[in-house]
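PROTEIN DESIGN WORKSHEET
SECTION A - STRUCTURE
LENGTH: 231
TOKENS:
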């Protein structure tokens, strides 16, 4: 908690509005913080954090696949790594509008530190989108989102999926979650669902991020052999 507090206080010292996303206080392990800022504040916050001793690293070639310039990593010894976003993208494509995150923001407290976070339902949706298009598995730390899986059937989220050409993938995820019982973590999404997420985007947008797919094959093979997860 001390590293978390110090990292959040560093960001607040910049005076720039931000939203702490995909975060639950029940997490046992926090390896990074996903911070969303307005596009106009993106470079300003990077410069301000560099003045506080943070180093900036590009995330353009990440195996999760980001649209160029949408995310940077900020790192400082003794702090939690910051994944700084001006928008959320995966596999070099958009899946949601950042506007729904900004429109839902509300004040919350992490310890005694006041921050903005998305509404619970938007935050849950964002976690599921990340699981579907990057991680492809659910950890024990994320077990609580399973209690809120009905969030996924809400109209605004179906609309987001339809707008960004992954509505069928979302419905398949919902169907799988409804059928899945007695989970042992980590829980991997079925291969058929992962493959379909690539297929649907390809059919509707004629794009596929081959690198992220090859990485998926690699880490699943490595997990089978060593039991090691990438995140």
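SECTION B - SEQUENCE
RESIDUE ASSIGNMENT:
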């Amino acid at each position: 908690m001390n590293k978390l507090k110090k990292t959040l206080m560093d960001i607040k010292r910049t005076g720039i509005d931000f939203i702490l996303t995909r975060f639950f206080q029940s997490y046992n392990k926090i390896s990074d913080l996903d911070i969303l800022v307005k596009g106009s504040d993106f470079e300003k916050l990077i410069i301000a954090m560099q003045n506080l001793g943070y180093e900036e690293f590009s995330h353009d070639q990440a195996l999760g696949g980001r649209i160029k310039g949408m995310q940077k990593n900020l790192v400082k010894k003794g702090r939690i790594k910051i994944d700084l976003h001006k928008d959320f993208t995966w596999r070099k494509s958009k899946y949601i509008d950042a506007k729904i995150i900004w429109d839902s923001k509300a004040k919350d407290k992490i310890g005694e530190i006041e921050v903005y976070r998305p509404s619970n339902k938007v935050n849950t949706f964002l976690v599921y989108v990340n699981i579907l298009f990057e991680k492809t598995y659910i950890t024990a730390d994320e077990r609580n989102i399973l209690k809120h899986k009905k969030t996924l059937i809400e109209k605004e989220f179906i609309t987001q999926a339809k707008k960004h050409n992954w509505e069928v993938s979302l419905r398949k995820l919902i169907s799988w979650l409804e059928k899945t019982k007695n989970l042992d973590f980590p829980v991997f999404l079925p291969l058929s669902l992962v493959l379909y997420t690539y297929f649907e985007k390809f059919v509707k947008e004629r794009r596929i991020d081959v690198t992220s797919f090859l990485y998926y094959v690699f880490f699943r093979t490595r997990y089978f052999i060593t039991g090691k997860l990438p995140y």
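SECTION C - NOTES
The domain at 2-226 is CATH 3.30.460.40 (Beta Polymerase; domain 2).
The mean pLDDT is 92.
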